[in-house]
Amino acid sequence: MSVQVTGSQPHIEVRGLTVSYGSFVLMRDLNFTIGRGEVFIIMGGSGCGKSTLLKVLVGLKRPSAGQVLYGPVSFWDVSPEERDKVMRRAGILYQSGALWSSMTLAENVALPLEQYTKLKPAEIRDMVAYKMALVGLAGFEDFYPSEISGGMRKRAGLARAMALDPEIVFFDEPSAGLDPVSAKLLDDLIIELSQNLGTTIVIVTHELASIFAIGTNSIYLDVETRTMTAKGNPNELLKSSTDPKVVRFLTRGGSDQPDGLKGERI
Asked: What are the pLDDT digits (tens) for 166-210?
């Protein structure tokens, strides 16, 4: 079942964004708003610029033109120090989980708390235990990343991304490399974060089951026109879009709308 969010206030606004690599324009004229508490999906085929757009949103790549607004802050028009302050309110889960292999799961989750807070060691331990319980990893604090499954590594990475109680969490292909059961569990966890904590979720993915199950808003990036050609709730786009490329993407190339697809992992 998909999450429904209505009346959300803008959390991130993208205005007239163009991203290039040298003289090659990857995408142009992007305009969209991510509301507070939304599960916002950045979707499209391979090579359309999904992950590059994520890099722009989190401060890893400067756009060629346009603005990214976090509330009143024009992200790329302020100093690097100000951008760092904005990103302190955000967490990121990378495809691999990006855990330090030489650290236990507890040490990985504790790292941002040690670096960016003045909490005492006992307080950090309590916070780490809470975050790990939040993602279903209570009791695994002393395990190393190599000793757990891929799905558990993703959840441990999420616990670390949530360590500083971020307002926004960015996910880059969260289901990549996971079996269907683990992917469904991660989807359920994302829904819980959105519904119970009010966290804004931004996800780069092409996994249709996740898109339909958890997405409340989305944009579709078209590799041929190098811009966004659709935006809105993915389930509504599936019903109403007249763009053949969007329909093809959302139906895996089929001409019919597959009623049984929504909410299921294929």
From this structure: 999 999 888 877 788 888 888 888 888 888 888 999 999 988 989
Torsion of CA 204, 156, 119, 73, to 10 degrees: 0
| DSSP category for residue 9 | P
**What's the Cα-to-Cα distance from 245 to each of 48, 53, 179, 214, 250, rounded to whole Å?**
13, 20, 28, 22, 9
- Number of Cβ within 10 Å of residue 188's Cβ equals 12
pTM: 0.85
Instruction: Tell me the CA end-to-end span of the chain in Å, nearest whole number.
Output: 15
Instruction: Please state whether 37 falls in left (phi above 0), alpha (psi between -120 and 50) or beta.
Output: left
**CA-CA-CA-CA dihedral for 117, 59, 230, 42, to nearest 10:** -50
Packed helices 121-134 and 150-161: angle between N→C axes, nearest 10 degrees: 130
Count CB neighbours of 13 within 10 A: 16
pLDDT confidence of residue 185: 85
Rounded to the nearest integer, the mean pLDDT of the chain is 87
